[in-house]
């Protein structure tokens, strides 16, 4: 099993910046893709950015040019640098990882508990 713990959420003014981090720990064979999702009040969870183990990155259109996802495979961490924040970025941000717990076993999705990002003046 794996545990994902996010950090870095908080209150920031529009136009400001914030960095999120997620650390994976536990017992597993390999972590495959990692991603950040978010869920705003009254809305469905949405993908913000994802990154494969090989470094292939995808962003939601709403955050392109403003957010940057990165990962450290050796440390099994994933980060999200958020710049030029807008009120509509306000949400609980969740770390996600696809984990192969044992060789030959299908990967499973794991989720962190989330960290709240509030963009408001």
Structure explained in plain terms:
The chain is mainly beta and 121 residues long. A hairpin with a 7-residue loop joins strand 9 (91-100) and strand 10 (108-111). The chain is elongated, with a radius of gyration of 14 Å. It contains no helices and 11 strands.
Short description:
Helix content is 0%, strand content 56%. The protein is an all-beta fold and 121 residues long.
Q: What are the main properties of this structure?
A:
mainly beta, 56% strand, 7-stranded mixed β-sheet, 121 residues, 4-stranded antiparallel β-sheet, single chain
Shape: elongated
Distance between the termini: 40 Å
Order of helices and strands: EEEEEEEEEEE
Taking all Cα atoms into account, the compactness measure Rg is 14 Å
Mean pLDDT: 96
Helix percent reads under 10%
The portion of residues forming beta strands comes to: over 45%
State the total count of DSSP E strands.
11
Biggest β-sheet description: 7 strands, mixed
Number of helices: 0
SS-based class: mainly beta
Uncertain ranges: none
Task: Indicate the topology.
Layout: E1 2-7, E2 10-12, E3 18-26, E4 30-39, E5 46-51, E6 57-59, E7 67-72, E8 77-82, E9 91-100, E10 108-111, E11 115-119
Parallel strand pairs: 2-11
Antiparallel strand pairs: 1-3, 3-8, 4-5, 4-9, 5-6, 7-8, 9-10, 9-11
């Amino acid at each position: 099993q794996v545990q994902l713990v996010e950090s870095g959420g908080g209150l920031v003014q529009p136009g400001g910046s914030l960095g999120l981090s997620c650390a994976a720990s536990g017992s597993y064979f390999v972590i495959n893709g990692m991603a950040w999702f978010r869920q705003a009040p009254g809305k469905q969870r949405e993908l913000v950015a994802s990154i494969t183990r090989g470094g292939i990155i995808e962003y939601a259109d709403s955050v392109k040019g403003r957010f940057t996802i990165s990962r450290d495979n050796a440390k099994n961490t994933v980060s999200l640098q958020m710049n030029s924040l807008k009120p509509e970025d306000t949400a609980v941000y969740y770390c996600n990882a696809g984990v192969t717990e044992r060789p030959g076993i299908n990967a499973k999705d794991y989720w962190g508990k989330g960290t709240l990002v509030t963009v408001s003046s």
